[in-house]
Design the sequence.
């Protein structure tokens, strides 16, 4: 709706001319406004009397604008008005749709209202100009004027509502009186009373001073407000501040013509997605997420979550592979270079790789290295990767309980991440690395889910080309990854996993093998790692063998390597302290650096078997084989049997079986018929804190019992393994190779094995490994006793002498 301009100049209206010398002028009472001279003010006129006043104006457009003392008065009389007002000229009247008028008035001069004339329909009054008192030009008044101006400028600059034009206008006003009135009229924060007061101050200097006070006060208020504002902002949450800053940065970058930062980020991610080589479906989803991201507010809570997710998708090696061909000759060289011996193991690895070479998309089984600690499982894996020119990454599964560790958490979880498989893929940046899943036999399982089943899906070549991580929720093709698992034992590996694996067993090393490994690999490596050179230290074979035999008791070579490291470190210190000649690690040096001998299994055997009733069995454990003492003792009693040493049910049963055989064959082995009638037997297997089970100690039990009852000590440095039946047959047992090597490491010279494992022994053990140990095969317990117990007094004396000799050497 357009405002209608109305001409109010009505000739012959009710313009009132007073009687006598003074004229009476219409008085327009205003509520909350003060009109200053020279100011143009649009006044809203709504009161009936005032409308009549405006409408009555003829040629003479002069009115007196006077503020009411009380703005709430609707029909003010003369006494309700201030005494000082402004003579004003009406320039324009605009009729508003609601019948009120918009009256543009220009202040002309300050006036003192004189006598009132008429009261209805509107007030009229006489007036008297109020003389201004202009100050003399002086430095002081000049300073005052400038100060007022400066303060005004400051207020305008820092105000968001005041127009900057005000400054320019003010700057161009020279007259102090006009300047004061202009500023007073322009300041929105002055109250009506303050403005009226300024109007009523004809003394210009005084007016400026008052104004100066108001301006100073306002500036103070403004500063305080800024301070409060900044304090409030400080306490605004970090995220909001970030948002604020980011918005500002955006604005700045826009000004500078830069691309918006988040836009840039999004563009980068888009490039990565395009280049990642994802399948069409994954790419479609990734771009969808990206577009969502582009529309999101960077300060939103889930912005970074979405961004992380898109980033994960973008950086995974969807199509990036590192190698092409498998070079079998090169692989063989690398394996030989990195590892001593292990011929069978290397052969099987090479067979496996050959098949992969001929059939690159082979959905073959997964390799699994099984063996005691420190025999080179992990380092073989590393070697395979090197041989194939692939990246290598080791994922430790030991103690993993949670399925999510393998397959990730759903994105809806707080702090969700992809599982280990995807994390490692991101790290290696190619999709065909060698992943070594260490300690697959130590996977846990509980309420958080079954990692084994997640692993199954990961490893199964039938399923893993669409492996789905919970976090990514997109299929990823794992079929190019070469998975190699390691384990110390097979028993605890879940059967479905075991089914899909090709097991390669690594047994422990003999002393000779250990010495070879030490001399070719461990010593050179430790010398180098400890900052020495081969010119500074030398390990004679005798010392290496001494360390291996008397300071370690292991199937692998980890401890041996550690001890060699210790010797190197101590030597490095000597060198640092100024030693210049080459150090030969003699047995004395070994003693000095590593302390006294820690392990003496051979003398332990000699010592313990001095007494009748003690035999040496062989046990298989996840850390390799070990020797096991079986002790039998008797006391007065009624034919009872006690068994101790944490024996499992199967082992207890083999004690019973052994005992039954002894009782039923008492006379045949030279005992009285009812030999057990007046005694109680106690069978104990020391190292009582360790749980033991299995039938393979049967023959050793029988031997210990017969040794006790016939009062003949078992022959020295002899060990045995084999299950026994009630009728005295010796049955084959497992882990023969490990057990044999353990016996050899312990210094045993004769080993009794079930005859049925002969083929295994010949196949699994090399002639160097067997060298130095006599193997006796037995099919019946009588054969065992024949070998294990001295048959004549002179044999017994010989044994005694051998034992004394060994113990004397050990002193
Ligand atoms: N045949 C070997 N030739 C050379 N070095 C070997 C050989 N066997 C083991 N080693 C070395 O012994 C050390 C221990 O081997 P590794 O870490 O591979 O043991 P592991 O079988 O993985 O043991 P664990 O079951 O405890 O993980 C490594 O430094 C490795 O290089
Ligand atoms: Mg390992």
Sequence:
């Amino acid at each position: 709706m357009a405002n209608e301009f109305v001409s109010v100049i009505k000739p012959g209206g009710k313009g009132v001319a007073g009687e006598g010398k003074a004229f009476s002028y219409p008085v327009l009472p205003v509520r909350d406004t003060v009109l200053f001279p020279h100011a143009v003010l649009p006044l809203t006129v709504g009161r009936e009397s005032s409308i009549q006043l405006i409408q009555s104006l003829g040629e003479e457009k002069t009115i007196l604008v006077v503020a009411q003392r009380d703005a709430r008065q609707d029909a003010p009389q003369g006494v309700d008005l201030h005494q000082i007002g402004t003579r004003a000229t009406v320039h324009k009247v605009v009729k508003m749709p609601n019948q009120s008028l918009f009256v543009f008035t220009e202040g002309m001069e300050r006036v003192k209202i004189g006598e009132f004339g008429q009261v209805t329909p509107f007030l009229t009054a006489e007036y008297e100009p109020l003389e201004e008192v202009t100050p003399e030009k002086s430095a002081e008044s000049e300073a005052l004027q400038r100060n007022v101006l400066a303060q005004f400028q400051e207020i305008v600059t820092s105000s968001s509502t005041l127009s900057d034009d005000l400054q320019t206008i003010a700057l161009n006003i020279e007259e102090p009186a006009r300047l004061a009135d202009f500023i007073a009229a322009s300041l929105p924060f002055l109250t009506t009373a303050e403005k009226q007061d300024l109007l009523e101050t004809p003394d210009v200097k005084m007016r400026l001073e008052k104004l100066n006070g108001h301006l100073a006060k306002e500036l103070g208020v403004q500063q305080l407000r800024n301070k409060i504002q900044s304090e409030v902002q400080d306490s605004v949450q970090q995220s909001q501040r970030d948002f604020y800053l980011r918005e500002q940065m955006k604005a700045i970058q826009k000004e500078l013509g830069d691309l918006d930062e988040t836009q840039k980020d999004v563009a980068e991610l888009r490039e990565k997605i395009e280049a990642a080589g994802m399948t069409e479906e994954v790419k479609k989803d990734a771009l969808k997420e990206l577009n969502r991201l582009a529309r999101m507010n960077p300060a939103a809570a889930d912005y970074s979550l979405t961004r992380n997710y898109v980033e994960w998708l973008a950086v995974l090696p969807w199509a990036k592979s590192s190698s092409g061909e498998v070079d079998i000759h090169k692989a063989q060289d690398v394996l030989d270079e990195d590892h001593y011996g292990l011929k069978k193991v290397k052969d099987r690895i090479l067979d496996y790789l050959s098949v992969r070479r001929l059939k690159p998309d082979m959905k073959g089984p997964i390799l699994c290295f099984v063996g005691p600690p420190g025999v080179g499982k992990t380092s073989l894996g590393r070697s395979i990767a090197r041989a194939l020119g692939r990246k290598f990454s080791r994922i430790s599964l030991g103690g993993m309980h949670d399925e999510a560790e393998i397959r990730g958490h759903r994105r809806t979880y707080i702090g969700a991440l992809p599982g280990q498989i995807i994390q490692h893929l991101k790290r290696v940046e190619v999709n065909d690395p060698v992943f070594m899943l260490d300690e697959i036999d130590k996977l846990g399982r509980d309420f958080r889910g079954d990692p084994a089943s997640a692993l199954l899906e990961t490893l199964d070549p039938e399923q893993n080309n669409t492996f789905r991580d919970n976090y990514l929720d997109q299929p990823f093709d794992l079929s190019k990854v070469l998975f190699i698992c390691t384990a110390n034992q097979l028993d605890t590996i879940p059967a479905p996993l075991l089914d899909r694996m090709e097991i390669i067993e690594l047994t422990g090393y003999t002393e000779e093998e250990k010495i070879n490994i030490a001399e070719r690999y461990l010593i050179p490596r430790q010398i180098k790692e400890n900052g020495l050179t081969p010119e500074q230290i030398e390990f004679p074979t005798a010392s290496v063998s001494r360390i291996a035999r008397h300071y370690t008791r292991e199937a692998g070579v980890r401890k041996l390597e550690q001890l060699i490291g210790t010797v190197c470190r101590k030597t490095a210190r000597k060198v640092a302290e100024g030693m210049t000649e080459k150090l030969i690690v003699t047995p004395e040096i070994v003693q000095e650096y590593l302390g006294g001998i820690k392990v003496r299994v051979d003398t332990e055997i000699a010592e313990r078997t001095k007494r009748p009733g003690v035999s040496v069995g062989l046990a298989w454990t996840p850390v390799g084989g070990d020797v096991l003492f079986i002790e039998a003792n008797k006391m007065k009693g009624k034919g009872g049997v006690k068994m101790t040493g944490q024996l499992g049910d199967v082992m207890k049963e083999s004690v019973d079986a052994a005992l039954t055989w002894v009782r039923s064959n008492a006379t045949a082995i030279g005992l009285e018929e009812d030999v057990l009638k007046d005694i109680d037997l106690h069978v104990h297997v020391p190292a009582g804190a360790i749980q033991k089970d299995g039938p393979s100690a049967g023959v050793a039990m029988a031997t210990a019992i017969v040794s006790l009852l016939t009062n003949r000590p078992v022959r020295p440095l002899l060990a045995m393994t084999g299950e026994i039946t009630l009728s005295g047959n010796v049955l084959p047992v497992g882990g023969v190779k490990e057990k044999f090597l353990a016996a050899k490491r312990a210094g045993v010279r004769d080993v009794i094995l079930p005859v049925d494992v002969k083929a295994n022994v010949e196949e699994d053990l090399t002639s160097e490994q067997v060298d130095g140990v006599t193997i006796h095969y037995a099919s019946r317990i009588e054969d065992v006793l024949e070998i294990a117990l001295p048959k004549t007094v002179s044999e017994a004396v010989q044994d005694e002498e051998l034992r004394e000799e060994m113990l004397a050497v050990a002193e």
Observations:
- The chain is about 45% helix and 15% strand.
- The first helix runs from residue 48 to 56.
- The two ends are 121 Å apart (CA to CA).
- Residues 377-378, 438, 486 surround magnesium ion (ligand 2) (CB under 6 Å).
